[in-house]
Amino acid sequence: MYGKKVKLRILFLSLILAVLILTVFLVLKSLEENVVYFISPSEIKELGEIDYNKKYRVGGMVKKNSVNMSADYVKFIITDFKSEISVKYSGVIPNLFIEEKGVVAEGFLKDRNFLEASKILAKHDENYMPPEVKEALKEK
Fold this sequence. Notes:
- The protein is α+β, with helices and mostly antiparallel strands.
- Helices cover 33% and strands 29% of the residues.
- A hairpin with a 4-residue loop joins strand 3 (74-79) and strand 4.
- The model has no long low-confidence stretch (mean pLDDT 86).
- The chain folds into 2 domains: 1-35; 41-122, CATH 2.40.50.140.
- It has a 5-stranded mixed beta barrel with strand order 1-3-4-6-5.
- The longest helix is centred in the first third of the chain and has 31 residues, at 4-34.
- It is built from 3 helices and 6 strands.
């Protein structure tokens, strides 16, 4: 019914479409795995049941006057201005980690009010500018 050329074109277009669909799927899947989602302290309070063997990412602001550093660990409170959660972290603290700034702590919940963090991600606001860029702008 169809000639050889038409069949080859249909096959070629079908293969291109299949490869395109597969590529889009793989890109979206890899992005899904690398996106950092976090929950707020208020959302933790509202969770029905907590899986204590699951890692959680809790995000919010570091409460003012809550940072308590010792030689082995740092304790602080993450707040979303409605609820709070205490965090204990042993490890290297990021340079951007300061009070009243955003932070995401990843670790295991011990209860609804305490997180033992294994990783701290300090966030900066949208007005952040690296010091080198600030100096270059000042020189000009």
